[in-house]
Write a structure and sequence with these properties.
Helix content: 40-55%
Bound molecules: S-adenosylmethionine
Number of strands: 7
Strand content: 5-15%
Structural class: alpha/beta
Distance between the termini: 33 Å
Amino acid sequence: MRRAAHQLLDDPKVFDDPVALRIIGKESASALQADPRQFEATPLSSYLRAFVAARSRYAEDELALGLRHAVRQYVILGAGLDTFAYRNPYPQGRLHIFEVDHPATQAWKRARLSEIGMTLPGDLTFAPVDFETQTLEEGLRNAGYDPVKATFFSWLGVTEYLTTEAVMATLRFIVSAPKESGIVFDYMISPSLLTPDQRARFDALARRVGSAGEPWQAFFDPEVLTRDLRAMGFRRVEDMGPEEINAKYFNDREDRLRVGSLSHLMNAQV
Ligand SMILES: C[S@@+](CC[C@H](N)C(=O)[O-])C[C@H]1O[C@@H](n2cnc3c(N)ncnc32)[C@H](O)[C@@H]1O
């Protein structure tokens, strides 16, 4: 919904996603088009919308860089309603896409795709995996993932819902991928590092996701996470905080759209 709202509300767009409005379904799309601001009324909403747009843009920019080198597979972890596979700009056969998601979410998405009459691309494979109970390796192996091909992974809007152990286990699998593989993921900063203002926003959001039955569980200190990823064996590790994200994607905007202070993106290359 936020990616779709971004298409309607923000000019210039940070992330161009012509499928976003279609994939939310006819009813939601009509409601959003009738009054795009109704779901985006609070200041927090615009921060979240900006972050959802920026993290997808960053992941797909990094994927594009990887494709200029050895990357031949794209694994979208916790894909949700990610639409990359349905607007893949690369020639057929250049990139194999794996959508990995919780089996329940994936079944829901597949029903939605069929409802909207979306043709499934030949270079897309669905891999149902529950990160808490199954290994990514097993899920990908069953889906035909090729472990000798360099692979780019994105993991957007997911790590905060998992346990720290599940996040680290997945990252350990990714660091074992061939050279030139990499991952972009976002994560929630440890509440102990926040100022009182930031903490108030954190608490408001945490309450909202908790009452929806999906509490945040994993939090990271950017410096410690950077150090841990290097120790794990990632060759290049870059953390982008809110200032860097705003400077990269939201500079000089008349509408002052920008990400909020809780936004962090990690880029780790094998
Ligand atoms: C907020 S959505 C993000 C979706 C998408 N990546 C995006 O950026 O729009 C969170 C996603 O995490 C997935 N997820 C949460 N817990 C999971 C688990 N234990 N195993 C697999 N996926 C999980 C959900 O199924 C959902 O697709």
